[in-house]
Design brief:
769 residues, alpha/beta, Rossmann fold, six-stranded mixed β-sheet, six-stranded parallel β-sheet, 32 strands
Length: 769
């Protein structure tokens, strides 16, 4: 169940705040309360003012009013100053929240709320400067991945007239377009599922007023120029006309009473709009708290709509879209600070599904099936639903849900025994404290020498060394050049097919060819989770990391050399055979529609492997760097055997930790997962994960659609069998996954449920007719 933590701030920054915390289930009264004090902070006020001034000076063209547009982007020094002042503001803000008098609230939040819960942190304050502070950097928000700060005024529940619409109705106002690209916003809205959109392009005030007054709308959207003047918001409709919320309040009040649930102002400096719309008790509102560059506005809208239309909660969708903007902060400082969500505290959190009010009437359904519901009609429903779901899959609308289900099924897998072929020498926090952070070249060289004394088959150095680090550089380079069975790591530095010099990491001097493997094999999906791994890709001109093979696959080849031969076929994958050409295994190419994916061919470029994760602590034996360098000869002989491969790398801090279906995993553990999985496929005949073809997925979906409709049509009270069928579906999917076949669960579950619902409604309607 979703939780809401309400923080009420009484006071001002100059005098300090009395803070009251209430935590409740979203639909129930508060069940816990606590209080605390935040001290006055003049330094925080000054830091905020300095950052705001620097931020506005560093911008290029934004969606603020044309009179205030900055034509030239900020200089490099202005951008650097803005970034430094943002760090200063974050530091000052965090220090303020760490006040001893506030810790009772901090502690109560952590005691009451679980990290897996969906949490709204609702901030209510009269001091509007709190709305400008970087609440996303609060330690609580960073530690709770499903929490987001929202803002609200005193609650007031309002009555809505519900309208029966089969689609979500959106009034989209594309205002004054001079200097910005509002057509990009239009294209994003047009791609939404189950939406009926009316676009008003550079409209007049009368046109907007008429639509708000005469029609029912679920969402109001505005893209264009706007600004805040003395806490009053103004939007620019066309080159000659602008208006405030006050000048439109009767139409807006009418629209809210008729079902308007959400307003999105994808424009600049929108807090003034928020303050006025709060007074009209609009349920939910998204604005930008500062001037916003055009590209940032477009990227936010794109990512927000992806998550929100996938039926994630509104505040969760805002958080994920906001965090996505961090990728633009090399050009647009503090982009991820800009989106802000306001919510009427009396209203529950919104989802895409709750906006839909679907009503099947006898006038729309009964004439199509006459007076008797027969199995042909059930088949027609099932096939229609199957076509709908297949189309949604083809457009990628179900990919998020499919990958979510994939992650949970992956977590249900039982762990196999540790792979006896692997040994990980893990540099942990205690090692870094003892030997220095980062490790010196001499320490790395000593570790490699110690490992090679026991003649393991392969050594993988998962530590970048493209330049000297402290002392011992020449010693390390010599050691690497003299060790033919040691594989080093480098970074190609490619993003979307373009080499980025800042991301590229060169190999150690003198190493090339089969002594290198690229680290870019860790391939994140749109939610930043690593599910796929690139084994081989074409060499990239301009990068000194000239290896066609990933770090893990290069180690696998060295481990098996010379008893195995490889054939790389772009249309089939990696063909592995004995020296006598007897086939041993195939690592197939991943198609763009593999399993729950619906990607472009470029997204699946190179030879990729779906990673079958095991828990990191169970998959391979580990020793620390201290145990390696100070361990006894007898113990090390047992650990570092000639039939083993040894990985040396960091397992400390958060820099090299990656999101995966089983949680955060260190990079060296992901490489070990891939190595173990590849060796298991080649030496132990473990099959690669496979998936149904497109026609198979459609047939599988149709089967469950027919079954759901048939159960409701055939039996008077089918709900026990209906639930049993859903459990059977889950069992089939989990069982097939154990057999290394990825069968979709989301499309058949939706088809099963939707067909059952439609047949049940029609059946009941005809029975009562």
């Amino acid at each position: 169940m979703s939780k809401r933590a309400t923080l009420r701030f009484e006071g001002r920054l100059e005098q300090g705040f009395q803070v009251t915390l209430e935590v409740a289930d979203e639909n129930n009264p508060a069940f816990t309360e606590s209080s605390g004090v935040l001290p006055p902070s003049i330094s925080l006020i000054q830091s905020l003012e300095r950052w705001q001034q620097s931020y506005r000076q560093s911008l290029g063209i934004t969606r603020i009013s044309l009179e205030n547009v900055v034509v030239m982007a900020g200089t490099l020094s202005q951008l650097a100053t803005c970034r430094q002042l943002s760090r200063d503001l974050q530091s000052c803000f965090r220090e303020w929240l760490e006040a001893e008098t506030f810790q009772s609230i901090n502690q109560r939040l952590r005691e009451t709320l679980d990290k897996d819960e969906t949490i709204q942190v609702l901030i209510r304050a009269r001091d509007h400067r709190l709305h400008h502070l970087p609440w996303h950097g609060w330690d609580f928000i960073e530690r709770y991945p499903h929490a987001e700060c929202v803002f609200g005024s005193p609650p007031e529940r309002i009555q809505h007239l519900s309208a029966a619409n089969s689609k979500i109705r959106i009034l989209a106002i594309l205002g004054d377009r001079r200097g910005i690209d509002t057509e990009a916003d239009r294209r994003l809205l047009e791609a939404l599922p189950d939406a009926e959109i009316l676009f008003l392009v550079e409209p007049t005030r009368q046109q907007i007023h008429a639509q708000l007054w005469e029609q029912n709308w679920n969402i109001l959207f505005f893209a264009g120029h706007s600004q805040t003047e003395e806490n009053q918001g103004r939007i620019y409709l066309n080159p000659s006309e602008s208006l405030t919320v006050e000048e439109l309040k009767y139409g807006l009040r009418r629209a809210i009473s008729q079902g308007l649930q959400l307003a999105i102002f994808n424009s600049c400096d929108g807090l003034g709009l928020a303050y006025e719309l709060e007074q009209l008790h609009l349920p939910q509102l998204i604005v930008m708290r500062e001037p916003v560059p055009d590209r940032v506005a477009q990227e936010f809208l794109k990512r927000f709509l992806v998550h929100f239309s996938a039926n994630e909660s509104l505040h969760s969708s805002v958080r994920q879209a906001r965090e996505w903007l961090q990728g633009l902060e090399d050009q647009f400082p503090c982009a991820s600070w800009l989106p802000i969500l306001f919510q009427n505290p009396a209203m529950t959190s919104l989802t895409w599904q709750t906006l839909r009010l679907i009503e099947l009437t006898p006038e729309t359904i009964a004439p199509k099936i006459h007076k008797k519901l027969n199995f042909r009609a059930v088949l027609a429903f099932a096939l229609g639903v199957t076509a709908l779901i297949t189309g949604m899959r083809f457009l990628g609308w179900l990919e998020f849900a499919e990958l979510w289900s994939y992650d949970h099924i992956m977590q249900l897998q039982t762990d196999a025994l540790p792979d006896s072929r692997l040994l990980i020498v893990a540099v942990d926090d205690r090692d870094l404290k003892k030997f220095g952070d980062p490790l010196s070249d001499r320490t790395v060289s000593q570790a490699l020498k110690k490992i090679e004394q026991y003649h393991p088959r392969v050594v993988g150095l998962d530590i970048f060394r493209d330049r000297p680090t402290k002392e011992g550089w020449n010693e390390l380079v010599t050691q690497l050049q003299r060790s033919p069975n040691t594989i080093a790591i480098c970074n190609v530095g490619e993003v979307d097919g373009v080499l980025d010099p800042e991301l590229a990491i060169n190999p150690p001097p003198g190493l090339s060819g089969n002594r290198l493997g690229f680290a870019d094999g860790l391939l994140p999906d749109f939610d930043d989770k690593i599910r796929r791994y690139v084994l081989k890709m074409d060499e990239r001109k301009g990068s000194l990391c000239q290896s066609p093979y990933s770090f893990s696959w290069q180690i696998v080849q060295h481990y098996l050399k010379p008893s195995i031969q490889y054939s790389y076929q772009q249309d089939r994958g990696i063909i592995i055979s004995d020296l006598d050409q007897s086939p041993k295994a195939i690592i197939p190419v991943l198609p763009s529609d593999f399993g729950g994916y619906q990607r472009t061919v470029d997204d699946m470029a190179g030879l990729q492997l779906m990673i079958r994760y095991r828990r990191s602590d169970h998959m391979a034996q580990k020793i620390s760097l201290t145990n390696l360098l100070e361990g006894s000869d007898a113990d090390l002989q047992q650990l570092i055997r000639p039939d083993r491969l040894v990985l040396l790398g960091y397992r400390s801090g958060n820099e090299d930790r990656h999101e995966t279906p089983i949680g955060k995993v260190y990079g060296i553990d992901i490489h070990a997962q891939v190595i173990s999985q590849s060796l298991g496929m080649i030496l132990n005949q473990h099959p690669a994960l496979s998936a149904l073809p497109e026609w198979g997925k459609a047939l599988w979906t149709a089967l469950w659609a027919v079954l759901g409709g048939w159960l409701v049509w055939r039996f008077r009270t089918p709900w026990v069998m209906w639930l049993a069928a859903l459990l059977t579906l889950i069992g089939c999917v989990i069982g097939s996954f154990i057999l290394t076949i990825w069968i979709p669960i989301v499309p058949p579950a939706i088809a099963f449920s939707l067909t059952s619902l439609m047949v049940g409604l029609v059946k009941n309607r005809l029975r009562s007719a």
